[in-house]
Design goal:
- It contains 8 helices and 14 strands.
- With 340 residues, the chain is α/β, with parallel strands linked by helices.
- The chain has 2 domains: 259 residues, Zn peptidases (Aminopeptidase), CATH 3.40.630; 75 residues, OB fold (Dihydrolipoamide Acetyltransferase, E2P) (Beta Barrel), CATH 2.40.50.
- The longest helix has 17 residues.
Length: 340
Amino acid sequence: MSLPSNALTSLPEHIPLQDELPFHTLRFRSPLPGPRLIITAAVHGNETCGTFALKRLAQQIETGEIKLLCGVLTLVPVTNPKAYRLQRRAGDRNLNRRLAPVATPTEYEDHLANWLCPLLAEHDGLLDLHSFQSGDRAFALFGPANNTGTLEPFSQASTEEALVQRLGCNRFVYGWLDTYAKGIKRRALEVQAGRFTADSVDIETAYGVGTTEYMRSQGGWAITLECGQHDDIGGRDIAYQAVLNTLIQVGLIQGAAPKPATDFEVLGLYEVFDRFHADDQFAQVWKSFDPIAKDSLIGTRADGTELRAEQDCFIVFPNSKSQPGQEWFYLARAGGRLGR
């Protein structure tokens, strides 16, 4: 079900599109009607814990060890084959940004989106398995509260909130697209001020749309699970257990009902800062969810401008390798959802 690692790396970076690894799914359909669930892994090619978990599950279903009670289960162990082959985050660009069908595809991920988006739309829900660059434990991201707004209208908040508490982790994050939209507005002002050119950075809110946001736009629910640090093989077991818990919770397989997390923390993203210059530097080596006290120094711009926390908060997705004009770090605060 996978190529040997030496086969993946023996091909050059740039090969004709027709020579890339094919898009591939594993679909299991019960004779009985039921929920339609899709689970994706390796949306970013170097995030493979979910790949191992889905291949393990597929083998168990194929041998009858795990039985599908009803509905449809679609597994995508390698969502981005080119990035997976190159063992890096992206092929030509980040698949989890500006995800939508493209009338005239130019980049590899455009072709991929034209296959993936209709596939997502065929399902009721999505579990998307990822891993992270820095941090101490698994966490999950869920969507907005029910709303009829224009940014991300939604009506399945209760479904997501019930599922996210049964994945097996106890740290939950929300507020992605709202925060990203705020960052895009700030970035557009930087373009107007002449710091960046409009063709060198993304200034459309749609750039914040990835797999989960696209799934919600099609009427489904969607959860992202960050299973651990990229190189921690323990993330494979976290991914596998989360998959089983989700399958049981939605009624696709039998098993003891997963218990909701009790001692958990909920964090709401509220701010994002772009990197302006390659010499912008963090004040220290930050990891996701490191706490930051009010007035503490987070980082310093190349021109000497200090970025300090305006309130007690947590840093999320700090990226010391981000390029100028791209997200550098997010800030989150505790509470606000899941009954807190």
